[in-house]
Amino acid sequence: MYIDALKGRAIYVHAAPGGKISRIGFEPQRNFELAHIFWFAKPSHAELIVMRCCADFEAVGAMQPANVAAGGWIDMRPIDVHEKIKIVADQLGARWRNEAQLKREAENVVAEIIARVESMRRTGRLAEINAKYKAYRLAKVAKGEKAIGYPAYMSRYTQHLVARAAEAAHA
């Protein structure tokens, strides 16, 4: 999925059957209804927000101390948990996106990468990358070491382009 290229982190808010209690965490839960997803460009923002929210939920008695470490159950409706996450994110200055916004950004990153590769093809820079790979491979062979294959080399280069485009999207 293109969203993975953005290197962000999600906070998932799930609802238990009946929707009267919630669960937050960094991974989707299979057996519970997904109520909300918050996507953060910086994983540290998501982690800080969950930590702060769990402390606040514990302080008001909506979350048992044993559940805090596990990002466990909260005796609040999912919409109330959603609102709390928004408030904490705003207080901390952590910019978040919903899934539709993130998808648009990821698609923009992919479009930019395609444009960069096309530009590189027209200007001969792909030949430059191919020459760098050939030099790398020959140096490895001369040392008696195994070189990574061309697809893996290009994958690493493409990952570098993705990271640069994603950083530009979040700037």
Describe this entry's structure for a reader.
With about 170 residues, the chain is an alpha+beta fold. The chain is about 60% helix and about 15% strand. The chain has a 5-stranded antiparallel beta sheet. Strand 1 (about 10-15) and strand 2 (about 20-25) form a beta hairpin. Helix 1 packs across helix 3 and helix 4 (about 100-125) packs across helix 6.
Descriptive terms for the model:
five-stranded antiparallel β-sheet, alpha+beta, about 60% helix, about 170 residues, single chain, 5 strands, elongated
Mean pLDDT: 84
Helix content: 55-70%
Biggest sheet strand order reads 4-2-1-3-5
Q: List the helices and strands in order.
A: EEEHHEHEHHH
Q: Span from first to last CA?
A: 21 Å
Give the number of DSSP strands. 5
H/I helix tally: 6
Task: Note the topology.
Blueprint: E1 9-15, E2 22-25, E3 33-40, H1 43-59, H2 65-68, E4 73-74, H3 78-92, E5 96-97, H4 99-123, H5 125-143, H6 150-170
Antiparallel strand pairs: 1-2, 1-3, 2-4, 3-5
Helix pairs in contact: 1-3, 4-6
Describe, in short, the structure shown.
This protein has 171 residues and is of the alpha+beta class. It contains 6 helices and 5 strands; from the N terminus they run E-E-E-H-H-E-H-E-H-H-H. The longest helix has 25 residues, at 99-123.
